Amino acid sequence: MSTKQKNNQSEQMKDSKFRELFLHELKDIYWAEKHLVKALPKMAKGATSTELADALTNHVEETENQVSRLEEVFEMLDEKAQAVKCDAMEGLLSEANDILDDTKSDTMVRDAGIIIACQKVEHYEIASYGSLVALAKKMGHNDVARKLEDTLKEEKNADKLLTELAESEVNDDAAQE
Ligand SMILES: [Fe+2]
Ligand SMILES: [Fe+2]
Description:
Mean pLDDT: 94
Number of domains: 1
Strand content: under 5%
Radius of gyration: 18 Å
Structural class: mainly alpha
Largest sheet: none
Helix content: over 70%
CATH topology: Ferritin
Distance between the termini: 59 Å
Order of helices and strands: HHHHHH
CATH architecture: Up-down Bundle
Number of helices: 6
Low-confidence stretches: none
Bound molecules: fe (ii) ion
CATH superfamily: Ferritin, core subunit, four-helix bundle
């Protein structure tokens, strides 16, 4: 498809239901990211190993940046940055809190639990950003797609780091407690 055709396509999609769906998903992940900025430090503080605490703290910084990136995306689309409550993320974060309540501090079982809770969060984000990238491309918003892809890469990387932490030491130590 030529650039001109693509421009026409994004013009035609201005009031489409497809664009509406895209914007709804964008507002959903915006809510989710904003809440993660508040929730992740608590997980980091509750972690037993410094490796896990550091990985989570690092991801808080990335998450703050992802919030700003979403605000840029809203701006690129000429839309107001608006958050719509994400029930899924609220549920995942409530489960993460339960892990902290149900495990003892200074145990590796707690770290194993935190990793599980955080990977569920990352997988939700990966699914969300993967879909948003696909929709943005379909609408011909390649610049927006590229921005969302940057975040998608960070989420995949965060997930991979958590797997590595679990497999390299946390699960072994937790199994011995
Ligand atoms: Fe994120
Ligand atoms: Fe994330």
